[in-house]
Design goal:
Strand 4, helix 5 and strand 5 form a beta-alpha-beta unit. The protein folds into two domains: 179 residues, Rossmann fold (3-Layer(aba) Sandwich); 84 residues, N-(1-d-carboxylethyl)-l-norvaline Dehydrogenase, domain 2. It is an alpha/beta fold and 282 residues long. The protein has twelve helices and eight strands. The protein has an eight-stranded mixed beta sheet, with helices on both faces. The radius of gyration is 19 Å and the shape is globular. The structure holds acetoacetyl-coenzyme A. Acetoacetyl-coenzyme A (CAA) binds next to helix 2, helix 8 and helix 10.
């Protein structure tokens, strides 16, 4: 494994590209327009600067990391030499199915196709390809260069060999891979999202305010961020989409998204990325 292609240059995509490049993989970062790619490279450069200023990497390592990343606006061009492709596009099932159909036709036959999806079924994604055994979930956590976990999701048809390769690869990135099966929300979001939803219900029902809820969880449970701040950080639209996958997938009312979350997303208050969620961002 040397050549990694990453589809999507948003928060997760640029973090994944950054991490592979930092560990000396050749990364092709792909998006639909050059301005998104340029912005992603700026973000990676800024995040590398943080690491340099903390002394966790050197200026030389920063330069090598950036040199290891090439950008592409054509998927066909960007994946033609790939050993592994990690898709980190928007959480939209139709978009993901289209991307995986394209990847199956453009990527080398033995390339592994991974998705960074936070909750969409790997089995369903694999079914649009002719290589279900080589399709897998590789779910990184935000911020990718910092967070140790990679949730490795085995679809119904994923082979042992593909799973072993991806687990070993995550270890090469100094991450801790955890193997899980493909059911709604996998493990991370099946547990995280009900907690966030409950925090939003706690606010909605007037039990306590934003500061109070987050402080209880930060200082009482030693969480690095309170659940409402974390929801803003993840994106309220993403939280809502994941809760809908859990609700539809299990048919259990305990996963029903809080009406306040639904309203905030409808009003365009999607968290840090839009400047407002439970908190204001300037
Ligand atoms: N790139 C590189 N380094 C980064 C970074 C980035 N994007 N963001 C932060 N860092 C580094 C900092 O340089 C710093 O490094 P040192 O430890 O060497 O000092 C370290 O991370 C901590 O950063 P800060 O001191 O700036 O801030 P902090 O201590 O408040 O930590 C945080 C920031 C790591 C984001 C922390 O608040 C945290 O862990 N929050 C929770 C994150 C979380 O739960 N993520 C999972 C979200 S769920 C998800 O991603 C999946 C999903 O499907 C929804």
């Amino acid at each position: 494994m040397k050549n990694i292609s990453v589809i999507g240059s948003g928060t997760m995509g640029n973090g994944i590209a950054h991490t592979f490049a930092q560990f000396n993989y050749h990364v092709n970062l792909i998006d639909i327009n050059q301005s998104a790619l340029d912005k992603a490279i700026q973000t990676i450069s800024k995040n590398l600067d943080r690491q340099v200023s903390k002394g966790s990497i050197t200026e030389d390592q920063k330069a090598t990391t950036l040199k290891n990343i090439r950008t592409f606006v054509s998927t066909e061009e960007g994946v033609k030499n790939a050993d592994l492709i990690v898709e980190a596009a928007t959480e939209n099932i139709d978009l993901k199915l289209k991307i995986f159909k394209d990847l199956d036709s453009f990527a080398p036959q033995n390339a592994i196709l991974a998705s960074n999806t936070s909750s969409i079924s790997i089995t369903q994604i694999a079914a649009v390809t002719n290589r279900g055994d080589k399709v897998i979930g590789m779910h990184f956590m935000n911020p990718v260069p910092v967070m140790k976990l990679v949730e490795v999701i085995r679809g119904y048809a994923t082979s042992d060999e593909t799973t072993k390769t991806v687990m070993a690869l995550a270890e090469q990135l100094q991450k801790v891979p955890v193997e899980v099966n493909d059911y709604p929300g996998f493990v991370a979001n099946r547990i995280l999202m009900p907690m966030i939803n409950e925090a939003i219900y706690t606010l909605y029902e007037g039990v306590a305010g934003v500061y109070e809820i987050d402080t209880v969880m930060k200082l009482g449970m030693a969480h690095p961020m309170g659940p409402l701040q974390l929801a803003d950080f993840i994106g309220l639209d993403i939280c809502l989409a994941i809760l809908k996958v859990l609700h539809d997938g299990f048919g259990n009312p305990k996963y029903a998204p809080c009406p306040l979350l639904v309203n905030m997303v409808a009003a365009g208050k999607k968290g840090a990325k839009t400047g407002e969620g439970f908190y204001q961002y300037t």
